[in-house]
Amino acid sequence: MRKLIPLLALIAAACQADGQDTAQHIQRLENELLPRVFIQGEPVVTASLAERMEHYGVPAVSIAVFDDGEVVWARAYGMADEEDGRSATPQTLFQAASISKPVAASAMLTFLQDGELDLDENVNERLTSWTVPENDFTAAQAVTLRELVTHTAGMTVSGFPGYARGEPVPTVIEVLDGAGNTDPIRVDELPGSRWRYSGGGYTVMQLLLTDLAGAPFPDIMRQRVLEPAGMTLSTYEQPLPEDRWGEAATGYRSDGNEVTGKWHTYPEMAAAGLWTTPTDLAHWAIAIQRAYDGESDGLLSRATAEQMLEPGPNGWGLGPPIHPSGAFFHHNGANEGFRCRLIAFVEGGRGIAVMTNSDAGDDLYEEIIGTLAAAYDWSELQPEEKVVVEIDPARLPDYLGRYELSFGSIAITLEDGHLWLEPEWSERPEELLPEADDRFFSRSDGAELTFMREGGGVVAFEVFGMRAERAQ
Questions:
Q1: CATH of region 393-470
Q2: Residues 364, 56: contact at Cβ < 8 Å?
Q3: Every domain of the chain and the residues it spans
């Protein structure tokens, strides 16, 4: 017993220290939020979380941090619904938007490890209620599940706007055939030839799983993923059942107005339909981490998890993208009135999930992640320090114009001797600063744009591995 007392004292002291560290991290988050980018030679200006929420017009943010395979803390701030005066809590449901995709992909992988699917077979051999329309591209190369979940199937429709409450909601097959509010989901380039983000591909996967299982998609997800992962509050039900409306955050536009009907309905459930909390997202990530480490096969086997986290084209795994360092898998989400991000390290059971109920939430969640990365010493996620170089002002007009991505256009403009990036989907222009010839970065988030020239003229730029072509 005499030897046990000092040991217990050490354990108690360690727990107290861990508690103090957690309290300090939360205090830093709440009072000393860091900018996303440090500019060499400029002072670092911090702000409180409340100030940044007000600055961006974000009513609510919910956060969960996990370490060593456990959620170590979860907090929510602000209002889930401003009109009703309902505060956000860690149990408040948010739309996960495109984070729905890797969670849905993990359900597909359970069929794979059960021997019911093959990643590289023609999906039309498994689809029964609808098939991918044949054309010259599919005749040359059939669409496979591997291509659907890695965004290499050559399929159209990058994302979905959803349907306001009271609007007719199409069936999945109607969505696939363009009878909803998006174009038909079709193959318009050779499958496997290149990476191009496609929520349409995940909608095909959704239908394939429902055809295979003979069950509604929300039931498949509940039985195969949500319950095994411990996601006790989450659902893929679309529309959200009325008896759960009081649990859900209302979505808000960048101008502070409510999304019509408070939130949209997404029949494209695999691509955008998950209602969840940061804590539940952390539980899913921990389940993947544990499987990868060989500690548990409650959701996926070790071999299947290793397949999932093997980076393919553009660094994409079987569902989530993998950071170029290989240190973590991640995904962000953007539905009407909701922005969120999940980051999970491959080792150590560590990570963070942040969810907001505003179209302006992406800048805020990046500041939160950068601040906590500095506190927890997550080197890959800490704010960058950038060096601005001088370039000849006469060159700036070379870059002006409108550039086209598969999911929208971006204008590059000039004001007071500075370049500005203006995406059509955002009301907040971003200042671009030069760091080398033909290479600029965003002051707000550090994103790098490299301009491409042909015959001396600028014809495109690359950002995040995507090429934006200059409009003629």
A1: 2.40.128.50
A2: yes
A3: 94-359, 393-470
Residues ≥6 apart with Cβ < 8 Å to 32: 46, 47, 48, 371
Which are the contacts of 22, defined by CB distance < 8 A and separation ≥ 6?
A: 72, 73
The CATH fold assigned to 94-359 is Beta-lactamase (3.40.710)
DSSP H or E stretch at residue 139: helix 136-140
DSSP, collapsed to helix, strand or coil, labels residue 129 as coil
What is the secondary structure of 151-220 as a DSSP string? Answer: T-S-B-------EETTS----HHHHHTT-SSS----B-S-TTSS----HHHHHHHHHHHHHHHTS-HHHH
Residues (pLDDT < 70) of the chain are 1-19, 472
Please tell me the predicted confidence (pLDDT) of residue 297: 73
Contact 429, 418 (CB under 8 A): no
Say how far apart CA 58 and CA 338 lie, in whole Å. 10
Residue 426 DSSP SS3: coil
Query: Which of 75, 71, 106 minimizes the C-alpha distance to 88?
Result: 75
Measured in whole angstroms, the distance separating CA 276 from the mean position of its chain's CA atoms is 13
Residue 382 pLDDT: 87
